[in-house]
Amino acid sequence: MKILIIENDIILIGAMTRIFESLGHHVTPTTVLEDALDQITKEKFDLTTIDIRMNGKNQNGLEAYHLIRKLYGPLPVVVITGCDDEMYEDSKQFLVDPYYKVYQKPIKIDTLKEIIEFALDGVNQ
Predict the structure, then answer these.
(1) Sheet holding 26-30, edge to edge
(2) In DSSP terms, which residues pair with 121 in a beta bridge?
(3) % the chain with pLDDT above 70
(4) Are 33 and 26 in contact (CB under 8 A)?
């Protein structure tokens, strides 16, 4: 499976990359939302993970979700956030989309495995 990680925490990117790769998946990590959107137009991914709050100008995971839908259609999108409870609840508004799921940080290895299963279920529908 090809996974695009969009995350501003470099340590978390490294950990997620190592875990996903140890499970046999190819990972493309980025800390810049614009780079991720550019990457999506060039390469086919099976799953993307997005942080809600990104560092930098014009970087918002929820806006990215809408752009990914527009560019890519039914790509499974997992939002992984360390945001406060209010922002977490706001992000759940998209849960009507079967290709969207939200997890709060900190993320555990079992959660990453669950994310892979979610993506595989979406791919196999």
Answers:
(1) 26-30, 2-6, 47-50, 77-81, 100-104
(2) none
(3) 74
(4) no
Place of tokens 């709060």: 104
- Residue 42: give its domain's CATH number: 3.40.50.2300
8-state DSSP, 117 = H
Which DSSP string corresponds to 7-69?
A: -S-HHHHHHHHHHHHHTT-EEEEES-HHHHHHHHHHS--SEEEE-SB-SSTT-BHHHHHHHHH
Tokens of 99: 């290709």
pTM given for the model: 0.79
Residue recorded with tokens 């790769």: 21
* Structural domain harbouring 110: 2-123
- Structural domain tally of the chain? 1
> How much is the CA Rg of the chain, to the nearest whole Å?
13
How many CA atoms, within 13 angstroms, populate the side-chain half-sphere of residue 59?
A: 17
Q: Which of 88, 103, 87, 108 has its CA nearest to residue 16?
A: 108
